[in-house]
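Give me the fold.
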Amino acid sequence: MIRKCSLKKIISIYLLKFGNPNLVAKPGFALKDAKKIYMIEITETKDFRLLAEMNEEIQTLHHSSYPSVFKPFDKESVTNFFEASLENENAVAFIAKENGTALGYVLLFIIHFADNPFQYSRSYVLVDQILVLEQYRTKGIGKLLLEATFSFAQSKKINLVELNHWSRNDAARRFFNKSGFNYYNEKMWKLLG
């Protein structure tokens, strides 16, 4: 269950309750299924070094899945990427923390698509990267990061959020489908030679 505790602009604190809420701990007994309460804070961040450090997990996964596309993690170049990205007025990052420990992040870009002879102009928020560190997954943190994304888009008067994921990432597919995203454009490739 997710319950918002406070909301100030895009900064949110959430209580996440896990386990069986009907269990009551008695003095002197430890219950492995007892309810655990997590205080999760979602805040905007400019800490490009922390984002780069966290990115190692997902970059390594991408490289192992698609080694001809993704480079091995290079801390210096990834740090430079996040630093430059966050200097862009159309970029923002949010981080999820519990007691000061970083759990995940989302990197967003506001995209303005110009009118052309084939398509109308539109603006949208692009989820460029979203990561919840492996040991914190399936606890609702990704959902909280997406809620921050949606709130951010609405605060900018943008009603469209777009993202993409790699075909082999079934967990991402399930998560995004469950979060209400729909496919509208499919990308294919054919390797020649």
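Residues 1-11, 15-34 have pLDDT under 50 and may be disordered.
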